[in-house]
Write a structure and sequence with these properties.
The strands form 6 sheets. Strands 2-1-22-21 form a 4-stranded antiparallel β-sheet, with no helix packed on it. A 4-stranded antiparallel β-sheet has the order 3-6-5-4, covered by helices on one side. By secondary structure, it is mainly beta. It starts with a strand and ends with a strand. It is globular and about 60 Å long. It is built from 6 helices and 23 strands. Helix content is about 10%, strand content about 30%. The protein has a domain of about 180 residues.
């Protein structure tokens, strides 16, 4: 696997050019991930500022002044913080996606007055570093079929109060509809990404809860029933809001600094289409110059499958929504890129197979005979007809590292990704036409 892959092409010619070596971004080019190089560097450095186990940490970012932070905690507290839940300790079966770095913790905590040794950059003082990820709250329906993407979302936050005031660490579950429903039932009810076979009669309970339950509104498209919306993919900060996201459902709004879940957020329904057919990508991009948020939603059930490019203004109002038919199958669309002028769509050959969903088999196929596609859409366009689709070699790109317009050639776009020869999504898929 080649971890870093660059590809560039002329918009007018539509022909990709693979570089002879890994391309670097030209000096002064616009960064398309929503943060400039300096701020991004600081974020990476400060992510390592607090290490609850009290170890020294070498400096990772050359532009950051912080070198180490130590939390003065006794050994018993440290052990309790990292203690796995009882249901996992007592489980007779093992699952690697519930072990090591993916092992869930057992409690929500708040630790105050953590001493900082070193100096915090001024940009970071008073700020909060947020991390969202899966943390399974109860024993899954099937230990063997549990997938890391299924875990209930948990937000970890480090609040940097200042050099003299120290820091606060907290972790809280995102109080999603599914988590509250499962807590009220005293058990896990949703299956997950590896095995979507409906479990009867539980399926009917989930269907009723989705549309007629106590929450009063659904938090995912009509085609998502056997899976919960765990709000575990990422955090998006935009228009004064903090959103916990999951790509096959709506986002949940959080309150800082206490991490309380304020409820479902869908921009007052303006992003919905019909019977809540849209969802909100886990990796929305904020333009640092305009303040706009660009995100995508997609539908793998309807024919033809499609995605939607959504733009919100700096104050959070819907500006534009463009529905784009996909050039291939019902692809898993995890990430995309933006430049100063364009949106770069990333479509790989990992496709949902509905018949496999209802048979209990892994629901995705990676098609070795299919192409990878990149779509280029001008950010000011309102029409799917303006998308330029570029075919690339068979591969998969889960994440886009960066994308920018070449400052020396206005018709050239350059995209950096993490390239994989193929992916089965950690057990979600099978090989096809290898």
């Amino acid at each position: 696997m080649e971890p870093l892959w660059g590809i560039s092409w002329h918009v007018d010619k539509g022909q990709p050019r693979l570089p002879e070596s890994r391309p670097g971004a030209p000096k002064g080019c616009w960064k398309g991930h929503g943060a400039d190089r300096r701020v991004a560097c600081l974020a990476v450095a400060t992510a390592a500022v607090l290490r609850l186990r009290g170890r020294r940490i070498s400096r990772r970012g050359t532009r950051a002044s912080t070198d180490v932070a130590v939390a003065q905690l006794d050994a018993a507290t440290l052990r309790q913080l990292g203690r796995p839940p009882a249901w996992l300790r007592e489980a007779e079966e093992a699952n690697l996606q519930l072990a090591n770095g993916w092992e869930p913790v057992s409690s929500e905590v708040t630790l105050r007055n953590l001493r900082i040794r070193g100096r915090l950059p001024k940009h970071v003082q008073g700020g909060i570093f947020l991390r969202n990820g899966p943390n399974q709250a109860m024993s899954p329906v099937s230990m063997q079929d549990y997938h890391i993407f299924d875990g209930h979302g948990m937000i970890h936050a480090v609040h940097f109060l200042g050099d003299d005031e120290g820091a606060t660490y907290a972790r809280r579950y995102v109080r999603t509809q599914a988590l509250q429903f499962e807590e009220s039932e005293g058990q896990c009810l949703y299956t997950g990404m590896k095995k979507m076979l409906p479990q009867f009669p539980t399926f009917f309970r989930l269907l009723f809860e989705k549309y007629f339950g106590s929450s009063g509104s659904t938090d995912s498209p009509y085609w998502v029933i056997q899976n919960r919306n765990p709000a575990n993919n990422g955090c998006t900060v935009h228009a004064g809001r903090v959103l916990a996201t999951w790509e096959a459902g709506w986002a949940y709004q959080l309150r800082l600094p206490d991490l309380e879940t304020l409820g479902l957020f869908d921009y007052e329904g303006t992003w919905a289409d019909g019977a809540v057919t849209d969802n909100c990508s886990a990796h929305g991009k904020q333009d640092p110059e305009t303040g706009q948020l660009i995100t995508i939603s997609y539908n793998m059930i309807e024919l033809p499958p499609w995605l939607r490019v959504i733009t919100a203004s700096a104050d959070g109002a819907l500006e534009r929504s463009v529905k784009v038919p996909l050039p291939s199958g019902a692809a898993l669309l995890h990430d995309f890129g933006i430049t100063q002028r364009r949106v770069i769509l990333n479509v790989g050959p990992l496709n949902l197979v509905p018949l496999k969903m209802v048979s209990g088999a892994p629901p995705f196929d990676f098609d070795f005979s299919a192409k990878c596609y990149f779509g280029i859409l001008d950010r000011s366009s309102d029409s799917a007809d303006d998308v330029i689709w570029v075919e690339a070699e068979n591969c998969f790109n889960f994440h886009v590292l960066n994308a920018y317009d070449d400052p020396t050639d206005p018709c050239r776009v350059i995209v950096h990704t993490f390239r994989q020869d193929y992916t089965l999504g950690l057990g979600m898929g099978s090989k096809l036409n290898e």
